[in-house]
Amino acid sequence: MKKFKYIIAAALISVFSGCTDEWLTLQPRTQILESAYYQNEDQLFEALVASYDVLQWKGYGGYTQFEMISDILSDDALCGGGSADDQPPLQVLEHFSATPTLSPDGFWGKYYSGINRSNIVIEKIDNVEEWSIYSKNRVLAEAHFLRVYYFYNLWRLYGNVPLVDHLLIPEEYNYPQSTPDEVYAFLVDMLDNNVIGKLPETIKSEYLGRITNGAAIALKAKIVLFQNDDSKMAEVATELKSVIGSGKYELLPSMDDIFDLSGEFCKESVFEINHTAASNWGDWGWLSGGEGNIQIVMSGIRGYTGPIYYAGWGFSPVQPELVNLYEAGDLRKDWTIIDPVALGATYDADGTYQNTGFFQKKYAPIGSNTNPANELTNFNNNMRIIRYSDVLLMTAEALLRSGGNQADAQSYYDLVRDRAFGNESNRKTVSLDNIYKERRLELALEGHRYWDLIRTGKAESVLGSLGYTSDKRYLPIPQVEIDKTNGVLVQNPSY
Predict the structure, then answer these.
(1) Which residues contact 202 (CB under 8 A, 6 or more apart)?
(2) Residue 48: inside a domain, yes or no?
(3) Domain assignment of residue 170, given as a range
(4) Domains in the chain: how many in total?
(5) The Cα angle at residue 155 between residues 153 and 159, in degrees rounded to 5
(6) Are 313 and 300 within 8 A, CB to CB?
(7) Using an 8 Å Cβ cutoff, are 75 and 449 in contact?
(8) Is residue 17 one of the residues assigned to a domain?
């Protein structure tokens, strides 16, 4: 941005000192025109990196931390913060009172930015005929995966979204919406034909964060399960079993180890978004430009003074119902929840809106995990989007729903329970209800609960007292986006 401002200033000086035909001819000295770019494999790989970069954006058009916001929508966490007026676009989510002009509308622009960047890679990749450094097929598959992932989140948030599968020309800018079923069919088709089987099983250390074939299979399973497409349950069960049988993944002995810095890209991590503290980013006007994870300070304990943790802003305090749901001996309670009083710490209880006394631990701020020059914006905690325990529970569910091998389903379910208690004495008979309960406890405060309630048809009974109704299934499409299209975009019903 600073360079851009300098260029503008230089141009203005030239204007006032006299215009010539030579000045009006576009001859950039320090930049490359787009028409001259995307001509070699390094440039295409840079475009792929730019597509990945959107995964890190948590401050685009407001705060858009998908996982934390998903928890606020669920019954596992409240909104919190400093007061009822702290971040109104987030506060309205808790009671499902978002409007077209008051919601976390940055999601729309963020994910379509990622889609556009992915489309650039997909459409420009054939400009390069010779590849010797990178694998063309792998780069293409990664771009398809990222586009699917961005659409997956838009699909869940808004339902009826424009299925922009190519670079738009000006005449197409007012692009029509597709139905949720059309989006679903597109996502599965793209994964089946352009991603799965075209990615490596493992990643070299210098490229950690790039997508693996296991991540692609797991993402397809999550999409099929969310759609409740029973016609594909046996198919995804078989594909998930291939991930389990690959030997590339395993449960760590302690969940604490997963969310520690030492657990980043561990054998339990299937899909993980990388963040770093290296950028020393401190620009509050463009948070998406940094590499740090601002969700960490947002969900930290407000006014905290005590061991281990760093003070935060007090968003997403944990509901006591979740805390009490853990059975005696379930180690996940201590791996998931912070009780600051039990730690001997103090915090600003009165200044924490909707204070419950409980806070999330998996993404709690630790001072050594950030850049001391700009601490708040540079936490380097990675986001674990899909873990191996999720794969095990999805496989068990898909097997039961497709009439598959019950013994296999039981063994996958047992693995998760055994790790949770540190022994085999707390096993239960596998069933869909028990799997759903296990998912809530195992994946608590990782952004899964709300979407599980939606797909299992339990959202209205569980969240009804908070204001949820079936016509609140989707967020309102941001009014600013509808206005840009002169009404081509149609608002979701009830808004």
Answers:
(1) 212, 248
(2) yes
(3) 38-85+99-198+467-495
(4) 1
(5) 145
(6) yes
(7) yes
(8) no
Q: Helical H runs in 306-362?
A: 320-325, 332-336
Please indicate, yes or no, if residue 167 is contained in any of the structural domains: yes
The encoded tokens of residue 2 equal 């600073």
CATH number of the domain within which 495 lies: 1.25.40.390
Q: Let me know how long the chain is.
A: 495
- On whether residue 472 sits in a domain, the answer given is yes
Largest CA distance in the chain: 85
Q: 302 φ, ψ to 5°? A: -70, 130
Which tokens go with 491? 């608002």
Rounded to 5°, the CA angle 153-120-169 comes to 95
Q: Please, are residues 438 and 413 in contact by the beta-carbon 8 Å criterion?
A: yes
* Helix (H/G/I), strand (E/B), else coil: 199: coil
The residue behind tokens 């029509």 is 176
**What tokens does 192 get?**
């089946």
Q: Tens-of-pLDDT digits for all 495 residues of the chain?
A: 333 333 333 333 333 334 444 434 445 556 777 778 999 999 999 999 999 999 999 999 899 999 999 999 999 999 999 999 999 999 999 999 999 999 999 999 999 999 999 999 999 999 999 999 999 999 999 999 999 999 999 999 999 999 999 999 888 888 999 999 999 999 999 999 999 999 999 999 999 999 999 999 999 999 999 999 999 999 999 999 999 999 999 999 999 999 999 999 999 999 999 999 988 888 888 888 889 999 999 999 999 999 999 999 999 999 999 999 999 999 999 999 999 999 999 999 999 999 999 999 999 999 999 998 889 999 999 999 999 999 999 999 999 999 999 999 999 999 999 999 999 999 999 999 999 999 999 999 999 999 999 999 999 999 999 999 999 999 999 999 999 998 899 999 989
